[in-house]
Amino acid sequence: MLRFLFFLLPHAGLPVSACGIMFTPPKVVVRYGDPVDANCISLSCHNVAGMGWESPYGAVRLTKNVSSLPYKIDKVKDWEITSHCYISFSDNQPQRLETLPITVYKMPANVSVTNPPEHLLEGVTYSLKCDVRDVAPAQNLSVFWLGKKGELKKETFSEDSFTPLDVASSLDLTPRRDDHGSEIRCEARLDVFPDGRAPLTMQSQPLVLNVLYPPNFLRPENETLERSHSSMTFDCTAAGNPKPVYNWSFASSTHPKEQINNMNKAALTPELVLSGTYSCTASNTLGSKTKYFIITEAEGNRTVFVAILAGFIILGAVLFLAGLHFVTPDGKFSCRRRSEPI
């Protein structure tokens, strides 16, 4: 009795080999109109009578005495293909059947940003639209909006359809002045490969942003400068779109404000710089800004002026006193004093 148990126990736990079906490749990804090639392989199967493929496209009848069976479609003409590999047995085992995963895809016919505005106002929000036409399968599609700093938005789609669809994505954009001249694209990415390969991509033509904004000075808005005998230049350069136009004027305590003619320039270099205030107005269709250049006399110039003025005052006082002593009551000049008798 003990010997009998000792004989049975080692065999009681032995696994029974499992029969299975393997595909190469495990999943098929095929572009619409291209061929399909796959293989069905039996794994650890005994008493196999034969193998076959059931499919509306490329069906293969039961083939005897094989452990693998190829499957082929010359040209895919449908969007949903169901293909089964089966194994039949000679010992009345139930037939084994597995479905080959097949994904049929089609790249978009076109990707475009539709009806983009010709001009964008700074600070105004616009809704941009990207149209992706005739793509399949839509549930594998992602649309990316790309700008100068990378990804702006990603949108996926849940349409459960094998046939091609038209889909659209939108982007709300509020442009700033530093966005002027930059590009925005939308990109369709079809992620159909199961083995980690990069998705298939198609981009729209770039949308170049033309952002309109009022002028803004590149340097400090107002400047106070000492008058110099050498050449002086006043820089009024402003950034704006449309390009700003410039108007210059001058005013001082002794000089009324007047326009400086023919000076639609960002920089002014007067032939003679006077003390006072030069003003520059930069303007376009969206607004205007004014910058002031306040010109003062240098310290040395004031000292010389005071000295000259004092000299004239002293000279005037001397002449006045001399007049008192040397001018007669009848207005004639005499070297004698008024008190001396004639």
Short description:
This protein is mainly beta. It is built from two helices and 27 strands. The strands form eight sheets. Strands 13, 14, 16, 17 and 18 form a five-stranded antiparallel β-sheet that branches.
Explain what you see.
This protein is mainly beta and 342 residues long. The protein folds into 3 domains: 19-105, Immunoglobulin-like (Sandwich); 110-209, Immunoglobulin-like (Sandwich), CATH 2.60.40.10; 214-296, Immunoglobulins (Immunoglobulin-like), CATH 2.60.40. Helix content is 11%, strand content 46%. The protein has helices spanning 2-12, 299-326; strands at 20-24, 28-31, 36-43, 48-54, 60-64, 68-73, 83-89, 96-100, 102-105, 110-114, 120-121, 126-135, 141-147, 150-156, 165-173, 183-190, 200-203, 207-208, 211-217, 222-226, 234-235, 238-241, 245-252, 255-260, 267-268, 276-284, 287-296. Strands 13, 14, 16, 17 and 18 form a 5-stranded antiparallel beta sheet that branches. Strand 23 and strand 24 form a beta hairpin. The radius of gyration is 47 Å and the shape is rod-shaped. The chain starts with a helix and ends in a 16-residue tail after the last helix. The model is unreliable at 1-16 (pLDDT under 50). Residues 108-188, 214-296 form the Ig-like domain. It holds the Pfam family C2-set_2. Keywords: Disulfide bond, Membrane, Signal, Transmembrane, Transmembrane helix. This is Ig-like domain-containing protein. One of its GO terms (molecular function) is integrin binding.
